[in-house]
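Re: that backbone. Tokens:
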């Protein structure tokens, strides 16, 4: 049982239904789009592990959908199905980023085996055993996620954009008994207003104009797994009522349907908005807020994780180099200084993007501050006749001092606990405290 989410793009109703049934029997989560337009809509809110797409669609072609998605979100393992295979087409698709293609009629068992191999490779390459293990600032959050994973209580993840809320949700899912079932991520802010109900709860045939067949929603695709509702604060009020019913009674109905269906799964929500303020403004239901606010975790912004920045930078540089098929460059001390001084308004996501660009376009052997910040958003250290207070070294010292003060405050002045939180020895911490005039604290 893999639990990986596959976006199936196939306009043939018979083949599509057969493929979905077999994939679900093999343990995959499946979201089925019957046209290029529906595929684009799903890709705006879903993050599939694999795309399995027909090349010819009634309103376009799978290749165009793939190129558009790759341009915005990066490569996703993609296999095309076509009845018109030839060498020229295969070369073009692979050059466009596709992993492979199969010619209809194809061996379904062989296709399933390839999909399972892709999933296993992705898990080995991309999923660390514990993304919080080497982070003093995040270790406590990782432990709380493990404890929460032992229950089915709703979890609410709070934090600025790019702080790793989906990483935390996936870690929670992987740490619990539902890990072998699908993890279905949904961006509530990207759902089209007129289709949001259908996409989340599904619809019956004829429930609205264009509903030529029944459709399974994200709730149904979650079966046994975890539904991750990102940007929950953007969920329309009418759908908040339906979600509340799911949380209270574990039941729901498809749009246009009369049958009550049972929900078997857990719900994890996330937002970067102030839900209490939204409740006060009557833009978010208070009863739903109480329901999802059972276990709440606040993910700190990267600017408050000074002790993690060097390690994260090295991790992302190594990952970017691996994707580029080269050895990781050495990180110049100037680059680390610049990273420590930078405010990281985009948090982890910004760091990954900056590192990917720096590794792709920079020097093969050394990564510098100029590679990381070509836009000049952080001043680079340059030789000066007289030292001034706004040098990067001064900024780094100020950030380090603030981190030590914060650690001491969190540990009630315990030198041993503060050193452990910061990931340094007690001797090193004591030396730095004396250097920054904190020896009496």
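Recovered sequence:
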């Amino acid at each position: 049982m893999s639990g990986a989410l596959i976006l199936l793009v196939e306009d043939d109703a018979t083949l599509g239904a057969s493929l979905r049934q077999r994939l679900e029997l093999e343990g995959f989560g499946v979201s089925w789009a019957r046209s290029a337009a529906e595929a684009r809509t799903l890709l705006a809110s879903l993050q599939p592990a694999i795309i399995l797409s027909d090349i010819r669609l009634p309103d376009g072609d799978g290749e165009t959908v793939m190129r558009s998605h790759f341009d915005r979100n990066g490569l996703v393992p993609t296999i095309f199905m076509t009845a018109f295979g030839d060498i020229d087409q295969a070369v073009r698709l692979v050059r466009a980023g596709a992993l492979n293609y199969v010619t209809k009629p194809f061996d379904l068992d062989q296709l399933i085996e390839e999909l399972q191999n892709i999933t296993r490779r992705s898990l080995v390459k991309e999923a660390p055993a514990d993304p919080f293990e080497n982070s003093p600032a995040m270790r406590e959050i990782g432990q709380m996620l493990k404890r929460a994973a032992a229950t089915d209580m709703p979890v609410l993840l709070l934090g600025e954009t790019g702080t790793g809320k989906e990483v935390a949700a996936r870690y929670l899912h992987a740490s619990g008994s539902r890990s072998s079932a699908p993890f279905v991520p949904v961006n509530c802010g990207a759902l089209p207003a007129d289709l949001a109900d259908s996409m989340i709860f599904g619809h019956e045939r004829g429930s609205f104009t264009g509903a030529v067949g029944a459709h399974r929603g994200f709730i149904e695709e979650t079966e046994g797994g975890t539904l991750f509702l990102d940007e929950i604060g953007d969920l329309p009020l009418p759908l908040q009522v339906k979600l509340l019913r799911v949380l209270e009674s574990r039941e729901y109905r498809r749009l246009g349907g009369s049958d009550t269906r049972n929900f078997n799964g857990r719900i994890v929500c996330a937002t970067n908005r102030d839900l209490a303020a939204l409740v006060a403004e009557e833009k978010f239901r208070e009863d739903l807020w109480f329901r999802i606010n059972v276990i709440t975790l606040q993910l700190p912004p990267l600017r408050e994780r000074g002790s993690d920045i060097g390690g994260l930078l090295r991790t992302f540089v190594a990952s970017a180099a691996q994707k580029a098929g080269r050895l990781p460059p050495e990180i110049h001390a100037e680059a680390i200084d610049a990273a420590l001084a930078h405010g990281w308004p985009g948090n982890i996501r910004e760091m990954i993007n900056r590192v990917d660009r720096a590794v792709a376009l920079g020097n093969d052997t050394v990564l510098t501050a100029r590679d990381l910040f070509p836009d000049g958003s952080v001043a680079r250290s340059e030789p000066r006749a007289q030292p001034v207070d706004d040098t990067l070294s001064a900024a780094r010292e100020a950030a380090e001092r603030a981190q030590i003060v914060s650690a001491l405050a969190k540990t009630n002045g315990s030198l041993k606990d503060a050193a452990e939180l910061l990931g340094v020895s007690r001797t090193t911490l004591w030396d730095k405290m004396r250097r920054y005039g904190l020896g009496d604290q």
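Residues 79 and 100 are 5 Å apart (CA to CA). The first strand starts at residue 5 and ends at 9.
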